[in-house]
Design brief:
The protein is of the alpha/beta class and 274 residues long. It contains twelve helices and nine strands. It is 50% helix and 19% strand. Strand 2 and strand 3 form a beta hairpin. The structure holds ligand C2E and calcium ion (3 copies). This is Diguanylate cyclase (GGDEF)-like protein. It comes from Stakelama sediminis. Keywords: Phosphoprotein.
Length: 274
């Protein structure tokens, strides 16, 4: 390899180094981020379609790095997920989210758990312990997982979800429709809520296929007694189309962006959007 096209090989190696170095820097920054107070949680309202009552909030992590400025969780969560950092970040996020429940009159908080968190030893015991520590009822915590979390060990995932649900926690399947064997999953697992992936809502007005999929998920959810949340509602037209389709709950920029804790508490007290 050294002899054949030295220059090309070196450029390739350097760009590899570059991306590895960048990941290491992100990892290093993240490992300090909690202690340095660079992380915060924001909260996006989830509303009922009928009267825009705020029934819950999804908790979303934000990182303002002194080196890089604001970095999207879509970028740093996967890096944390590849190391043990995800546990530290996830525990912090869970505690922050649970603490909000004492400020809100009755809404739930929906917390994202990455596959690695979900698969950790004694995940159930851990969630129970943090919830008790916060002094809140389990039914006010919704655990959001994606199909990836349950894909590789379905037997164990089914057991975990069953036990969580027995204890009163709410379970939501996030990004529904984008994973493997979605239908099989909802038959098999103890769930409360399906969150229709944003890509289907986005396509609804343009493609017959997306609209048909959205309608099917809503009907399926209803038939199975699940709450259905449409994610990424950005326009009035989408809101109306979802109303007509009989969607029970919605979340998206058209209703509200994710907001800081104090604004979330004001919306929670006010109870209705707009
Ligand atoms: P997600 O769980 O699918 O979260 C929804 C994402 O869609 C959020 O992006 C939210 O801000 C964004 N969103 C909400 N409404 C709209 C809309 O109307 N239009 C558009 N274009 N986007 C909308 P965010 O906050 O950047 O988070 C990205 C992903 O990072 C999340 O996707 C989730 O997978 C992950 N994430 C965020 N916070 C956490 C966390 O605390 N723990 C874990 N494990 N993952 C997290
Ligand atoms: Ca989510
Ligand atoms: Ca989602
Ligand atoms: Ca997503």
């Amino acid at each position: 390899a050294k002899r054949a096209g030295r220059g090309v090989v070196r450029v390739f190696d350097e760009s590899m180094d570059e991306s590895i170095r960048f990941r290491r820097q992100i990892e290093g920054g993240l490992s300090q981020a909690i202690a340095r107070g660079e992380l915060k949680m924001v909260f996006q309202p989830i509303c009922s379609h009928s009267d825009l009552e705020v029934t819950g909030f999804e908790a979303l992590m934000r990182w303002n790095s002194p080196e890089y400025g604001p970095i999207s969780p879509a970028m740093f969560i996967p890096i944390a997920e590849e190391s043990n950092l995800i546990h530290e970040l996830g525990d912090w996020a869970l505690d922050e989210a649970l603490a909000m429940l004492n400020q809100w009159p009755g809404q739930y908080v929906s917390v994202n758990f990455s596959p690695r968190q979900f698969r950790r030893t004694n995940f159930v015991g851990h969630v129970v312990e943090r919830t008790q520590h916060a002094g809140v009822e389990p039914n006010r915590l919704q655990i959001e997982i994606t199909e990836t979390a349950i894909f590789d060990n379905a037997e164990r995932a089914a057991d975990t979800l069953y036990r969580l649900r027995q204890m009163g926690f709410r379970i939501a399947l996030d990004d529904f429709g984008t994973g493997y064997s979605s239908l099989w999953n909802i038959r098999r697992f103890a769930l409360d809520c399906l969150k229709i992936d944003r890509s289907f809502i986005d396509g609804m007005g343009r493609e017959r296929e997306s609209a048909a999929i959205v309608h099917s998920i809503i009907h399926l959810g209803k038939a199975l007694g699940l709450e259905v949340v449409a994610e990424g509602v950005e326009t009035e037209a989408q809101l109306q189309a979802l109303r007509v389709a009989g969607c029970s709950h919605m979340q998206g920029y058209f209703l509200s962006r994710p907001v800081d804790a104090d604004v979330a508490t004001r919306l929670a007290e006010q109870r209705h959007l707009m």
